[in-house]
Amino acid sequence: MSSPFQLPAVPRLSRSTVDRNEPVRTDPARLAKLWATGRVLLLDAKGRTPVRAGATELATRPTAGDLPAAAMLLGEADGIGYWVLPSDEELREGVPSPDSAWGLWTGAASEAGEEWHDLRTTGALLSDTAAGLFTTAVALASWHAKAGFCANCGSAVERVNAGWATHCPNCGREEYPRTDPAVICLVHDGVGVNGSHVLLARQPIWPPHRYSVLAGFVEAGESLEGCVAREIEEEVGIAVTDIRYLGSQPWPFPRSVMIGFTAVADGQATLTPADGEIEAAQWVSRAKVREAFATDVPDLKLPGPTSIAYQMIKGWAAAD
Ligand SMILES: [Zn+2]
C-alpha cells in the first residue's frame, strides 16, 4: 500500500536559515552595529544580484561609512548582518533620502569572476542561506518599488524599521510589506492512492510545450481550499475533491507566496480550457512525466527547479 505523495524536498526558496531578528529593526544602536560589521547584497532594477561564477554563494560587499537611509536589513546569519541596497540609478528613483556618498551606486557594481543572476534562474542552485537572503531582498525591493505613496492620503512615504515598514509623514499611516497568497494545485485522477495521470495545462504566453499544474490568486474573503476548487473549475471546467496541503514557498514576482495543494478529479471528465487563460490542458501519465524529467521530451517541457510546481510534479512522479 503506497502512501500519499509529498514534496521530495523543501521548496528551493523556502530554505532560508536567516534570522529575521524583527526586534532589531527599531533599535538604532543595534542597527548601526549590524551595519558596521555587515555585508551588502546589491540588487539591480531587474532583480539581479552578483553571484560568484559557478558558486552557490552571493557575492556580497563589505559595508562602508554610515548606515544609508536606503539600506534594508535582511537579517542575520552566522553572526553577520546582511543588507540590501539598489545597485543602479533606475532603482534609486523613489528611494527616500539616497546617500549619494555611498560608493556602490555605480562604482562597485561588477567585479571579476562574478555574474549577475536573477532569483528564478539561480534560486535552486544557491545555498540555503543565500537563497533566503536573495528571496527576501527581491520581495522587499518589489514591495518598495510600488509602495512609494500613502494609500490613505497620497503623500510620499518614508522608509522606517530598516526597510520593513513605511510611514506617512502627513497622516501617520504605517504600511508593512504586502504578500499576495496564491494557490497552486496538482490534480490527479485518483486511481490508486496517487493517481495514474496528472492534470497539466499551459498558458498562451508560456514557451512552446511548457506545461505545469494549475494556480491562481486567492480572492478577498476566500479560503485557500475554496480558491483551489474555484480556480480549477474556472480554468478547466472540472470539480475536485480530497484537497490536501503539500507545502509553500515565497514567490516574490512581484509579491506572492505560493501555497501548494493536491486534489483529485475524475480523469474521464471533459476538460474545458478557459478562453484566453489556458491554451491547452491534458491528463498526462506518470511514465511520460518521468520521461520528461529524465530526458528531452519535445512536447512536454516541465517547470524549472526553482518553482514549487517542479517539486510538486517531481514528488507525484516519484510516487507509486
Ligand atoms: Zn498618508
Gist of the model:
With 320 residues, the chain is an alpha+beta fold. It has helices at residues 28-36, 89-92, 119-122, 128-145, 224-236, 286-294, 308-318; strands at residues 39-43, 48-52, 61-62, 72-77, 80-86, 114-118, 158-160, 165-167, 174-175, 180-188, 197-202, 214-217, 241-251, 256-264, 280-285.
Keywords:
15 strands, single chain, 320 residues, four-stranded mixed sheet, alpha+beta, 26% strand, 7 helices
Characterise the protein shown here.
The protein has 320 residues and is of the alpha+beta class. It contains seven helices and 15 strands. It has a four-stranded mixed sheet with strand order 3-1-5-4, with helices on both faces. It starts with 27 loop residues before the first helix and ends with a helix. About 7% of the residues have low confidence. Zinc ion binds next to loops.
Main sheet attributes: strand count, strand direction, barrel closure: 4 strands, mixed
Q: Can you count the helices?
A: 7
Helicity, in percent? 10-25%
How large is the radius of gyration?
Answer: 22 Å
Task: Note the topology.
Elements: H1 28-36, E1 39-43, E2 48-52, E3 61-62, E4 72-77, E5 80-86, H2 89-92, E6 114-118, H3 119-122, H4 128-145, E7 158-160, E8 165-167, E9 174-175, E10 180-188, E11 197-202, E12 214-217, H5 224-236, E13 241-251, E14 256-264, E15 280-285, H6 286-294, H7 308-318
Parallel strand pairs: 1-5, 10-14
Antiparallel strand pairs: 1-3, 2-6, 4-5, 7-8, 8-9, 10-12, 11-15, 13-14
Helix pairs in contact: 6-7
The chain binds zinc ion.
